[in-house]
Amino acid sequence: MFDLFSRGSRVRGRIASAPPPSDPVHDAGSGGMEAMIDLRGISKVYETDAGAFTALTDIDLQICPGEFVAVVGKSGSGKSTLINMFTGIDNPTEGEAIVARTQIRALDESQMAEWRGRNLGIVFQFFQLLPGLTLVENVILPMDLCGVYDPAERRERAMHRLAQVGVAEEADKFPAAVSGGHQQRAAIARALANDPPILVADEPTGNLDSRTAETIFALFEALVAEGKTILMVTHDRELARRVPRVLTLADGRFVDDVNASASRHSKAVSYTHLTLPTIYSVVISLVAV
Predict the structure, then answer these.
(1) Fold of 64-86+107-287
(2) Of 104, 107, 166, 242, which is the most buried if we count CB atoms within 10 A?
(3) Which of 82, 87, 31 has the alpha carbon at shortest distance from 254?
């Protein structure tokens, strides 16, 4: 697990940028634009007491800058494994994950923390706010530990993010003192703290009432309009239908990949759960640089 308080840790050496692909990137209809998330021939095999278990087989997936993508499927269909591969939570057995022009498999632990803190905002279904910090302190912490923005600006920027999601009035409260819905809003504000190009949201509206869910969805749409790339995992098919591109997972494979103008079929993943220690390691790595 990453050390929450290792403020002095810094990347040793340069983060590896991806070389230009040997073949054109096959995107989701964005005119040949280079992918922001590019999974190439990803396979994942786990060794268990019962023998080898193949979770992923030869996965190819490209998501372009500024795309808003929803991933839907039943529990156990493979959504979390997909997230694991391009957030660096887990490494593939074979294949390459190139995200934000970086070969993430080549990164060591400190490089991964640095890269993830600057390029990914991750929103978990169960918030994972640090309980000993107020909401605004939770949002400031990634800025502080990644060294982004002037220290005098960080609270103002954090308040702006909290205002975007409608909880600025509760900024100085601790997570336990606010509702679950407001904790989720604060978690989204934290994910946006360092203005990352990619936002990954695992059931971001799952614990929200319909009105608040609508507010959060509208915020995601506004962020995409500003050029951010968003991948949202959801069980809410009604919500997913409003997203321009929808990937459907079933029985360990993509059974549909639909955008506004095309329908695609792609091989994909089997499922693995994010354990609580893994979740905390990722939350911590967002701020432990």
Answers:
(1) Rossmann fold (3.40.50)
(2) 104
(3) 82
Is the CB of residue 97 less than 8 Å from the CB of residue 105? yes
**What does the buried/exposed string (b/e) look like for 112-135 if buried means 16 or more CB atoms within 10 Å of the residue's CB?**
bbbbbbbbbbbbbbebbbbeeebb
**Per-residue model confidence (pLDDT) at position 1:** 33
Q: What is the pLDDT of residue 7?
A: 32
The position carrying tokens 């900024």 is 171
CB 166 within 8 A of CB 185: yes
Distance CA 283, CA 285 (A): 6
Give the per-residue pLDDT at 229: 97
Closest residue by Cα to residue 73 from 272, 263, 201, 236: 236
Domain extent listing, the chain: 64-86+107-287
pLDDT averaged over 10-residue windows placed end to end, the chain, 289 residues: 32 44 38 81 86 80 94 80 86 91 91 90 86 97 90 96 93 94 90 94 83 86 93 88 88 76 40 40 46
| Burial class (CB within 10 angstroms; exposed 0-12, middle 13-18, buried 19+) of 232 | buried
Distance CA 92, CA 81 (A): 10
pLDDT at position 145: 83
- Cite the beta strand spans of 51-137 per DSSP E: 51-63, 68-73, 94-99, 102-103, 120-123
Answer whether 84's CB lies under 8 Å from 97's CB: no
